[in-house]
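Schema walkthrough. Field components (list of strings):
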Amino acid sequence: MNKNLLSLADLSRKEIEDLIAFAEKFINEDGSFKKESLFPDKTIANIFCEPSTRTKSSFEIAAKNLGCHVLDFDTDSSSLQKGESIYDTVDALSLMGVDLCVLRHSESIIHELTQYIPEMTFISGGEGSISHPTQGLLDLMTIIQHKETIDNQNIVIVGDLDHSRVTASFIQGISNFDFKSLTFSGHPEMCKSFQNHAQGKYEPDLNLALAGADVIVALRIQHERLEAEDIIDIDQYKYEYQINSERLAMAHEEAILMHPGPVNLDIEISTMVYESEQSVIRQQIANGVAIRMAVLSQYLSG
Amino acid sequence: MNKNLLSLADLSRKEIEDLIAFAEKFINEDGSFKKESLFPDKTIANIFCEPSTRTKSSFEIAAKNLGCHVLDFDTDSSSLQKGESIYDTVDALSLMGVDLCVLRHSESIIHELTQYIPEMTFISGGEGSISHPTQGLLDLMTIIQHKETIDNQNIVIVGDLDHSRVTASFIQGISNFDFKSLTFSGHPEMCKSFQNHAQGKYEPDLNLALAGADVIVALRIQHERLEAEDIIDIDQYKYEYQINSERLAMAHEEAILMHPGPVNLDIEISTMVYESEQSVIRQQIANGVAIRMAVLSQYLSG
Amino acid sequence: MNKNLLSLADLSRKEIEDLIAFAEKFINEDGSFKKESLFPDKTIANIFCEPSTRTKSSFEIAAKNLGCHVLDFDTDSSSLQKGESIYDTVDALSLMGVDLCVLRHSESIIHELTQYIPEMTFISGGEGSISHPTQGLLDLMTIIQHKETIDNQNIVIVGDLDHSRVTASFIQGISNFDFKSLTFSGHPEMCKSFQNHAQGKYEPDLNLALAGADVIVALRIQHERLEAEDIIDIDQYKYEYQINSERLAMAHEEAILMHPGPVNLDIEISTMVYESEQSVIRQQIANGVAIRMAVLSQYLSG
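Field assembly_structure (string):
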């Protein structure tokens, strides 16, 4: 296993399965998380250079559950504002004894940082549009909880795929497994890179895409983006791509519906479907804490 | 006792007295606060969607004194900025294992949140202009420390009553007790809702209002408001409503003067009065930590 | 020793040497810092009213290494924004049980605060252009690690001296020792107060200033300042004042180069020099944590 977690492409099937099995051990029978002071000597910096609620909080809660010190790094009030580079900042934190940085950044800079500061351990908390590996892990964990395995599943991803780091990490993660089929769906303007993709087929008609699906991953639509591109009308979008009860019925009757959150209710998913038993979206959030506890434990232990 | 603390209207006299007695137990003889790791397995989110210094810090200190994990929720850098609703945020925190949310919001939304997310425990940290229950409790605690009881007290509230959540909670709190009289005073433009009030009488002449008072609660005047409404001149305001030594002398000689802070010195209260022995304003701040330790303990214990 | 640490002028040679020796004890053989819960009952507020990365993080890490509770005081979202004075804020924190305030402020207000709130312990985290005492201590610690003593050293400070609180504290610190010489260098427009200075001589020619130097302190040039004052051209500045390999060779061959950071690489210091063995700049950052652990321990113990 690498020193850093930047991409699921760096993990083998066994490493992924072990991390997920490890994560399960942090969940108590009542659904709460184990809290033991396993790493009282470790200090983690939680550096989010883009707005985030759930990923940042999830890492912070995971780290505190493990008994780590957490440095909540407020990029607004820091010297980063005044031109200090992220390199200088992380180098300084390393010298101050920070053991591990969780880093979210709008650009793809983490790989370069690992070269400059080899003594630091980096966990990506989301990097540009290229990677969000702990999201990928929690997605796989959720599938395994319901389907026992990713092998032999018919998987559909629908939405704004082109700019989705969630999709990128999800595909890297499942490519270690023998899934049966992978189908991309969504407005052609949002799936330009997926119309000739090595690992899956593009099906613009969501009704056809969903036929026989076991696992459906819906992505968040950025309102800003819908408004900006007047080629896409929101009512038309909902008509063609919203996952509602009728559409969900085209999938396998035990299909699960996932979404990285936060959901735009009644845009990409109808309220009725969101609240249905097939929706495992809220379970994904809980799994996020367990996965991050496992990831932090693993990478802190070297 | 309810699962949540949103309003003092939900507490009985006995519940209020028990909470205050409980709070006293967290204060050491030298005035410091007890620090015991009573809740090492509990995680609290401190969500303040309005600027706050003392209430937010007071809850954070109280929670840490009890050994809780505290998630300091920075609403500026969170997804709340980008349109994620407070509902989504609190629901996600609940799934991540947060046991209790302290929430301040400029609008009256906490009751609705309790309906949507019944598994979360909510403590109001101030809600719109309708409620600030822990402030009410610390006010009652301060009166009881000096007067032994709220029964039989002549109580005066003076200042900008119309928009005061402090006043709202204070009145709800004392209405469980047999106070002797409750008098509202202040500029008529700031007391419109208090000129025909079921629980007290309005007396625009502060000199008359203070006659025989045992407990005086002065409220903060918003400079912005004084300036905005040119019907109110600041010098005239001070002439008519500032609590100075002459005015305080009209009250009972053992009257106490309270204020939720921060005080605009020499506007609503003269420096000499602020520093006098009758001023218990700084003691209110200390009591705030003890009350919040009691409230958190109580509501975390279910 | 005073109750507060506002200026190195308040410390004797012995007190400085003891603090540095104390700091060394917090460093493990592998360079990591000791983490023991020495002060589980102490609460520290980290109040930075100017942007800061390393000093703020350094104090936070130091405090957590000692087992203190740390209140991370976000001045952006606090009532300070709305006109509450820093006096009101610190007075309130004191009443809430905060034992020690680390305070950075753009103005020289800490001395006045110590008068108003005598029960609080204050550690300056940088005050206007007058003082940055823990930076001074870590600078002295770094010199002693390499030179065993500050006595008999030829010391050069170069850069924007006039507005440098780092320089102010450094001079106060070394004035307790028998250094051999102290030379100020830099553009005349940036050294106006140092051209007739009681404790050192001004030498505008950096080549001459560096001759025989044992210790070189380079200061950060504010880009804003260079741009604002069109009397100073950036290329001319680098030509005359950048510390590059040729210039460093004029100093003693075992001279050390220090800088408070963050460095503008290839402006005040060349990359080659920054990465050379004579550069102890990154070691200064590590020493910062050890010094702040020693300072917090000392001043928390009274």
